[in-house]
Design brief:
about 750 residues; alpha/beta; Alpha-Beta Plaits; DHBP synthase; 5 domains; 11-stranded mixed β-sheet; 7-stranded mixed β-sheet; 22 helices; about 20% strand
């Protein structure tokens, strides 16, 4: 006989891991025990040496589907005589690691029970098992046991208790286990009134939606606002009430068949729709479907996702139509998470609320994924992915809180060899958003039992995330350049320390020279970077006003390209702009007043898109860039002229020749599709060309494509195609390429910069 102690780290709590270990051990004649501890799972096993080796081998290769083993270490124990293999109570002592899994979409077995009239859980909206259901959003602490979830107040009935204690049952130690007799229940309430006496809350909600109403629906990580996605009047009503002019809405459909009717789906996109994470997947919409054009009025993309709780599936069954499912908030505010908050904040937006009495411990918005160049890319990392850790190549010396960016904010806590993203916060534009940020940081620190000793933040002094960092005490502060953080976030995902040539393209970010960066070629290590190249800056007349009134950026580009004499009379765009506004902007540029310089590639997309599409205003961030991308004619393969000034420090891509060529195209009546295609090809050729020139000087290091502009599949694919035959190209997968991913880069830079590793 022999004995071993096995320490297992990773996502191994709340996924049926302990019962699986117990069944495995019993099948092999192994005795001993398994228990949760504060960092994962501990196994003590006793058997013959041969059986223990087989047991270890099975532990490594055959874990439950939702589990993710990050490390498995075994040490010898003195043999003990035990008669059985048991599951012990959790151990709460010792250093903690967050081993709670993300929320998991309803599994096939639970869905079948919910739809089976003969099953005791027929029609029950909170059905789950060890393979599915709420996890992170109901957890109040670790180890992940029922007593440390918002299910603690629901005492299991005899039937549920029997399932929970039967090691052979798939609900053995399923912490949210419940049924209609003992678990959470639904309620329906008209806003402005009390809880309705409806005997069928879900049916009442379905009737409201079919009649063109708007409902607030309490889900896993917060409330959705829902309406009939096929009803143009209902969609416009929701837009008006939510104050969301043109930004697309996500649509939830009953099943994969319904998704296929609405969109052209690749195998990769279908796999994403069916994945346990159940993200919103950005796909190409089919023409002539039942979906109202008002759902996504400005793009051929549509965000589709499938039900991830029984509640959503039952509601879609009852309505019989696709539903808009968007975050329950006014634009720029966090999602609502409890009844009192929903009644207060959704008054005048929703007509009624579909409620339940299971508390939400942590807000967690839906994740968004898009297939770019054949590979899934997480655009927004939240429900389904959070709090799954990223394993770091080497541990951080001290716990680090990275506060993230201003837009699309997500924070990150790095401790030991793990980095944990928090849920998607969104744009830190309001006090409510900042309060959500503070709440989420505090809860994650509590769950991890971590007090950050280092706090990393963006260099921009006006960002609320920066102000939060500066206001905290008891930690060492490290300011991190925005685009350096972008590049290191891409490096972190692949475990690369450097050097790397990073192409960091986005709209804006504070540079170290007082200008706004965003078209950067950076030679990066974790602890330092060198700016080797950039794009010629554009002046933003009026500062932030130009982000919305994009004609100002177009005017500045023309002013620069035509030596102060832009040919406005030849360009239809400026017929849509008041003459007084044109004169004011011209004065700003001539006198260099309130016209800061910006190197961002995103600003070039705004300017060229405004000219080519004759669109003077952008309703939301990135709108013009997305429209400009989808306007491109794939048959057009040529590009515009450009120049690269290699003598400048840093080297500079000059698109003024492209601007003059574009004006000629417009004057000659060239279709916008051809102009867009030439622009995209020009940016790709110029970027790859400068990158190759730099790589010849610094050596064949990997190239990282990062920043929000690389959410553009056309540009990303083109640059990768031109470089990948000679160089390793790093692209984002699970870390978002935009601002929602930079926090992990901030954390690693701060750790390396302080040099605590000796």
């Amino acid at each position: 006989m022999a004995g071993i102690r096995v320490e297992i780290r990773g996502t191994v709590q709340g996924v049926g891991f302990r019962p699986w270990v117990a069944r495995l051990a019993r099948g092999l004649g192994v005795t001993g025990s398994v228990r949760n501890d504060a960092r994962g799972v501990i196994v003590e096993a006793f058997a013959t040496e041969k059986d223990l080796q087989l047991f270890l081998q099975q532990l490594r290769v055959d874990a439950p589907p939702a589990a993710r083993i990050v490390s498995l270490r075994s040490t010898a124990l003195e043999p003990e005589t035990r008669t059985e293999f048991v599951i012990e109570l959790s151990e709460k002592r010792g250093p903690k690691a967050l081993s709670i899994p993300p929320d998991l979409a309803t599994c096939e077995q639970c869905e079948a029970e919910v739809l089976d009239p003969a099953n005791r859980r027929y029609g029950y909206a909170f059905t789950n098992c060890t393979s599915c259901g709420p996890r992170f959003t109901i957890a109040t602490g670790i180890p992940y046991d029922r007593a440390q979830t918002t299910m603690a107040s629901f005492e299991m009935c005899r039937a549920c208790e029997s399932e929970y204690t039967n090691v052979e049952d798939r609900r053995f130690h399923a912490q949210p286990n419940a049924c209609p007799e003992c678990g959470p229940s639904l309620a329906f309430a008209m806003l402005g009134e009390g809880v309705a006496l409806s005997s069928n809350p879900l049916g009442a909600t379905a009737e409201l939606l079919k009649a063109g109403g708007v409902a607030g629906i309490k889900g896993l990580g917060g409330f959705h606002l829902a309406c009939d996605a096929s009803d143009p009047v209902a969609v416009e009503l929701l837009r008006e009430r939510k104050r969301r002019d043109q930004k697309p809405f996500a649509v939830m459909v009953r099943d994969l068949g319904a998704a296929r009717e609405l969109a052209k789906l690749s195998e990769e996109e279908e796999a994403l729709l069916l994945s346990p994470e159940r993200p919103i997947v950005l796909v190409e919409r089919r023409k002539g479907t039942s979906i109202a054009p008002e759902v996504s009025p400005d793009t051929p993309l549509i965000g589709l996702f499938l039900p991830y709780t029984p509640l959503h599936r039952l509601l879609l069954e009852a309505v019989g139509r696709p539903l808009v499912m968007t975050s329950a908030n006014v634009s720029d505010e966090p999602i609502c998470k409890d009844e009192e908050e929903a009644r207060r904040r959704l008054e005048g937006i929703a007509d009624a609320l579909l409620l339940h009495d299971r508390d939400i411990a942590m807000r967690c918005d839906d994740s968004v994924v898009r297939v770019i160049a054949g590979a899934p890319t997480v655009m927004r990392r939240s429900r389904g992915f959070v709090p799954r850790p990223f394993m770091l190549r080497s541990p951080v010396a001290r716990p680090v809180l990275a506060c993230g960016a201003h837009l699309k904010n997500t924070f990150c806590i790095a401790v030991g060899d793990s980095a944990y993203f928090g849920p998607h916060i969104g744009d830190l534009e309001t006090v409510a958003a900042l309060e959500f940020f503070e709440e989420a940081v505090a809860r994650m620190e509590t769950i991890l039992s971590v007090q950050p000793e280092v706090i990393a933040h963006d260099l921009h002094p006006g960002y609320l995330s920066t102000r939060y960092a500066l206001a905290r005490s008891g930690a060492e502060l490290v300011g991190v350049q925005h685009h350096h953080a972008h590049v290191v976030s891409a490096m972190a995902e692949r475990g690369i320390v450097g050097p790397v040539l990073g192409l960091a393209f986005d709209g804006t970010g504070a540079g170290i020279d007082g200008t706004s960066w965003g078209g950067e070629f950076l030679l990066c290590f974790h602890d330092r970077f060198e700016r080797l190249g950039t794009f010629r800056p554009i002046r933003l007349a009026g500062g932030n006003v130009a982000m919305r009134e994009v004609w100002r950026i177009a005017y500045a580009l023309l002013h620069d390209a035509f030596d102060g004499e832009p040919p406005l009379e030849d360009l239809p765009l400026f017929k849509k702009v008041p003459l007084d506004a044109l004169r004011l902007v011209n004065q700003m540029l001539e006198r260099d007043l309130n016209a800061p310089r910006a190197h961002g590639v995103g600003r070039y997309f705004d300017a060229f898109g405004a000219l080519g599409l004759e669109r003077p205003v952008s309703s939301y961030e990135g709108q013009i860039a997305v429209s400009w991308d989808f306007a491109a004619d794939s048959e057009t393969l040529d590009s515009y002229p450009f120049e690269i000034d290699g003598a400048a420090t840093p080297a500079q891509i000059d698109l003024r020749p492209s601007v003059r060529a574009l004006v000629n195209d417009i004057v000659e009546g060239t279709p916008p599709g051809a102009i867009s295609a030439r622009f995209h090809r020009t940016v790709a050729r110029a970027s790859a060309g400068l990158a190759e020139t730099l790589l010849q000087e610094i050596g064949p290091v990997p190239v990282a494509l990062t920043g929000g502009v690389f959410q553009n599949a056309r540009l990303c694919s083109d640059i990768e195609l031109q470089l990948s035959s000679k160089y390793e190209v790093l692209r984002h997968r699970e870390v978002p390429p935009g601002d929602g991913g930079i926090a992990i880069g901030q954390a690693l830079i701060a750790d390396a910069f302080l040099g605590d590793k000796g």
